[in-house]
Amino acid sequence: MWMLVPIAFALKLLNVFLQPLGSVWSSLGPLFLQLRAASWLAGGERSRLLQDRREAGEPGRAEGEDGGDLPTTPTSVNYHFTRQCNYKCGFCFHTAKTSFVLPLEEAKKGLLMLKEAGMEKINFSGGEPFLQDRGEYLGRLVKFCKQELQLPSVSIVSNGSLIRERWFQKYGEYLDILAISCDSFDEQVNVLIGRGQGKKNHVENLQKLRTWCKEYRVAFKINSVINRFNVDEDMKEQITALNPVRWKVFQCLIIEGENSGEDALREAERFVISDEEFEAFLDRHKDVSCLVPESNQKMRDSYLILDEYMRFLNCRNGRKDPSKSILDVGVEEAIKFSGFDEKMFLKRGGKYVWSKADLKLDW
Predict the structure, then answer these.
(1) Could you give the residue numbers annotated as active site?
(2) Chain centroid to CA 353
(3) 254 occurs within a structural domain
(4) pLDDT tens digits, 19-77
(5) Domain-embedded: residue 16
(6) CATH number at residue 200
(7) Structural domain tally of the chain?
(8) What stretch of H or E contains 177?
C-alpha cells in the first residue's frame, strides 16, 4: 500500500503540468496550420511562375518575393555518360580522361531526378555513346526517357560509325533526333581531322544513316566543327541533298585540360580559326535554310553539360570545372555551379521544336 502514495502524488503533479500545456497547444495549433498552408501556397506560386515562363519560351528562372532568383530549371540537358571513343578527332573537347560509366539503374535514377526538376529534353553524347555495350546501354536509356519519363525530346549525338539497323529496329521509335558529326564531305579531310577509320568511309556511312532515319521516323541532324582543315570548304550541295532538320555549325573551341594545356589529351591549337574566318564560312552557306551557327561566344556557357558522374561542368573559365554529382546533392544544389547562361541558351536557339511528333516531317 505504501507504494501507491507516491504514484498518486505523481499523477496529480503530472495533471497540474498537462493543463497549461494543453492550453498552449490549443493556441499554437492553428498557427502551425497557417504556416503549413503558407508554405504550400508559396511552393505552388513558385511552380506556377516557372511553368508560365516555360510556356512563354523564357528561361526556367523566376524571381522570388525576396528578390532572389529561384533555381535554374534544367530544361535541356546534355548527358555525356561516357568519355570513351573510337575516333581521335584532334579538336575534341570532351576526351577519354576516364573509362567510367554509371550503372544503368543509377543513370536512370539521375534522369528521373532531372525530369522532376523540369527537364524536357535529354541529349546523350560522349565520347561515342554507341560504344558502351554496342549501343544497348544507350538504347535502354533512350527507351526509359521516352516511355517511362515521357520526355518531349530524346536525342543522340554520335559519329555514326557503330550504329546498326537493328538498333533502329529496337529503339528507333523512342528517339526524336539523331545528330551525326560530319566535318567534311572530303574523306581525306576527315582523315586529317581524326574521323578516319580504316576502310570505312565516313561520308558513305552518313548517307546510309540518313536513309535509316527516314525509314524508322527519326529526325536527322548534322553537327559540323569548323576548323583549319575545312574552313574553306563549300558544303551547300551536300547539306541540301541530305536535308537535315538542323545543321549545327560550331566554331572550333579550346577547352583547357581537354584539348589544350599540360593535362590535355588533345592539342587543338592547330585547328583553331579566327572569328572572321568563321563568319566567312557562315556567309558562304547563308542560303542553307537549316543552318544553325554557334560561335565560341554562344557555345561556351549556353549548354547544361552533365559528365559521366552526373556532375554539371562549368566552362566559364575556359575549362570544365565539375559540380558535385546530382546523385549526391540533388539537381537544385548541383546546378548552382553549372555556370549556365540561360539568356545565351535562348539567344542561340537552344529552345526549338525538338519533338518528332511536332516536327511534321515528310517521312
Answers:
(1) 85, 89, 92
(2) 16
(3) no
(4) 444 443 444 444 443 444 343 334 444 444 444 544 444 444 444 444 456 679 999 99
(5) no
(6) 3.20.20.70
(7) 1
(8) strand 177-181
